[in-house]
UniProtKB/TrEMBL annotation:
Domain of life: Bacteria
Protein name (Swiss-Prot/TrEMBL): Single-stranded DNA-binding protein
Organism this protein belongs to: Antarcticibacterium flavum
Quaternary structure, from the entry: Homotetramer.
Keyword DNA-binding attached: yes
Matches recorded under Pfam families: SSB
Keywords: DNA-binding
Keyword hit for Ribosomal protein: no
MF terms (GO), sorted A to Z: single-stranded DNA binding
GO annotation, biological process: DNA replication
HAMAP family, per database record: SSB
PANTHER family: SINGLE-STRANDED DNA-BINDING PROTEIN (PTHR10302), SINGLE-STRANDED DNA-BINDING PROTEIN, MITOCHONDRIAL (PTHR10302:SF0)
NCBIfam families documented for this protein: ssb
Amino acid sequence: MKTIRNKVQLIGNVGENPKSHTFESGKKVTRLSLATNDFYLSNGEKVQQTQWHNLVAWGKQADLIEKYVTKGSEIAVEGKLTSRDYENEQGEKQYITEVLINEILLLNGK
């Protein structure tokens, strides 16, 4: 491997309606959650494990999500993993990991 890149690919279902915000500059950001499922056997029984991922999209990707994606939509995304921190209303430092979307594919066929 010559280079290792920060690349994430996920296919799953949107957990709630995406939330968009347009800044005074005109830039738009859309945030949403995505559930992915994994299955394994435990004592001979199939068990489903769900992981939740925070996704963020800017610009054209944000517009596309705002227009076509709703709770329950099945989507595929490609992006990169990012981490950041912020201070909550109580003044406590919070950390969050998100997938910054580069590409999105709508899988519902609607």
